[in-house]
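re: the backbone from monday

yeah here it is again, tokenized this time
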């Protein structure tokens, strides 16, 4: 796959086992400040940024990514922190892919909490549900006739007002039942749908990042 060393920062939007089935690369935990300079010293020629630290330590800085780009390293972002940084730095050469990147780039999304989740500190896997997934899953449920557009909007509003680390389909639906938006029966049906047929935008975009890197590595 070419002679460029590849490193990808992820583990939350997609598991390493799944990521490795798409792209042979070095996988590191969600990125934070200082990681880019470290992998530059290690000689990586392609950097993929999917997941990153948002609130409990310093996030990856724009100037770090700019240094990588200026040194000729290709940087690809999407899915989560990668989508945010790519939407801000695509004019400088960072490559953004996926729906979430496009939403941030086009101003459809602005808040960091749209992609933020609470994670298991040992495995980096999410223990809450990202707002982008909740919104798209509820919209799809609406299109499929499970809930009305009014109920969909009410549940999205509940989710958005919930702290990012506390967001879950169970909690949102329970609140929807409490305020009278959903009956118990419909709530159960919707919960089953959300758990079994979730629209996982973050994972879809993560796979797009990996495929884009695979494409670049062959050039």
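seq for it, each position gets an aa:
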């Amino acid at each position: 796959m070419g002679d460029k060393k590849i490193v990808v920062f992820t583990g939350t939007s997609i598991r390493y086992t799944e990521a490795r089935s798409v792209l042979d690369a070095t996988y590191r935990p969600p990125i934070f400040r200082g990681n880019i300079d470290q992998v530059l010293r290690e000689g990586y020629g392609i950097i993929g940024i999917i997941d990153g630290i948002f609130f409990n330590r310093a996030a990856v800085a724009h100037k770090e990514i700019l240094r990588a780009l200026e040194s000729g390293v290709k940087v690809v972002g999407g899915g989560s922190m990668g989508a945010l940084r790519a939407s801000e730095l695509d004019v400088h050469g960072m490559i953004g892919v996926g729906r979430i990147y496009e939403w941030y780039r086009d101003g459809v999304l602005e808040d960091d909490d749209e992609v933020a989740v609470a994670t298991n500190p040992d495995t980096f896997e999410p223990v809450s549900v990202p707002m982008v997934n909740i919104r798209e899953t509820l919209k799809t449920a609406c299109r499929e006739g499970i809930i009305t557009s009014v109920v969909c909007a009410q549940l999205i509003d509940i989710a958005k007002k919930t702290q990012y680390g506390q967001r879950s389909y169970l909690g949102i639906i329970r609140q929807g039942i409490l305020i009278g938006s959903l009956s118990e029966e419909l709530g159960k049906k919707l919960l089953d749908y959300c758990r079994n047929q979730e629209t996982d935008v973050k994972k879809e975009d993560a796979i797009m990042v990996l495929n884009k890197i695979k494409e670049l590595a062959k050039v």
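The chain has two domains: 6-119+201-217, 131-196. The mean pLDDT is 95.
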